[in-house]
Amino acid sequence: MARGHAIVFSGASGTGKTSLTRRLLAADRDLILSISTTSRDPRGQERDGVDYHFIERGEFLDRVRAGRFFEWAEVHGNLYGSDRHWVEEQLASGKDVLFDIDVQGGHKLKDRLPDARLVLILPPSWEELERRLRGRGTDSDEVIERRMAAAKQEMKSASDYEEIIVNEDLASAVAQAESLIRLLRRTTDGRSHLQALVSA
Ligand code: 5GP
Questions:
Q1: Measuring from atom 24 of ligand 1, which residue has the nearest CA?
Q2: Given ligand 1 and candidates 22, 75, 112, which is best to mutate, with the most ligand atoms within 8 Å of its CB?
């Protein structure tokens, strides 16, 4: 059985990354989401074990010391990490694992898994990003400004991301992501075929 692929989606809030991820997962049984562990409190409808594994900050730091995270980072004052054992197990069983993590997490993952594919999700424009953030109706002007500044910072540090999806409309972003994943799988199959041919 071929090892699965690690696919990282990074993008600021308002880029539609979560909707995109959900659509992909619903349509593809060989693709699973890495549910991150976090020290932040659940928001709104979020459920433990579904959106995140919610734990205390102290417990998170104990796990860091025990080497239990594949990568971890502090984002807006909270700690987030991807569980090493779970990720290894899924990849070894041939599953393709999707990571919804920030750019620093993407870089760390790539250090450990050089075959990981880094995908950046972008909004079509600053105006549209702002419109989407305001459309949620949950954040103050100040929070929106902070999110916009953080988005710019994150984009600046993502110049080495290999793939970029501009999320102008969700359906075409989904189609683009699906074709990217299909190509990854086909390339891996091609490599195994090549290996078999040359070692025959
Ligand atoms: P939120 O608190 O809004 O759910 O997530 C804040 C940010 O943390 C998002 O950019 C998200 O991609 C990132 N994030 C979530 N899980 C992880 C993780 O396991 N590792 C890293 N590095 N970032 C994460």
A1: 101
A2: 75
Residue 36 CA to ligand 1 centre (angstroms): 8
For residue 179, what are the domain limits?
Answer: 6-35+96-199
Residues 6+ apart with CB under 8 A from 84: 67, 68, 69, 70
Total domains present in the chain: 1
The predicted pLDDT at position 34 comes to 97
d(CA 179, CA 167): 15
The predicted structure's pLDDT at residue 19: 93
- What is the residue with the minimal CA distance to atom 14 of ligand 1? 101
CB of 40 closer than 6 angstroms to any ligand 1 atom: yes
Looking at this protein, which amino acid is placed at residue 78?
N
The 10s digit of each residue's pLDDT in 11-20 is: 998 899 999 9
CATH code where residue 186 lies: 3.40.50.300
pLDDT at 39: 98
Looking at the domain assignment, is residue 24 inside a domain?
yes
Q: Quick one: which of 31, 16, 28, 25 has its CA closest to 173?
A: 16
Whether pTM exceeds 0.90: yes
pLDDT digits (tens, 9 = 90+) for 58-91: 999 999 999 999 999 998 899 999 999 999 999 9
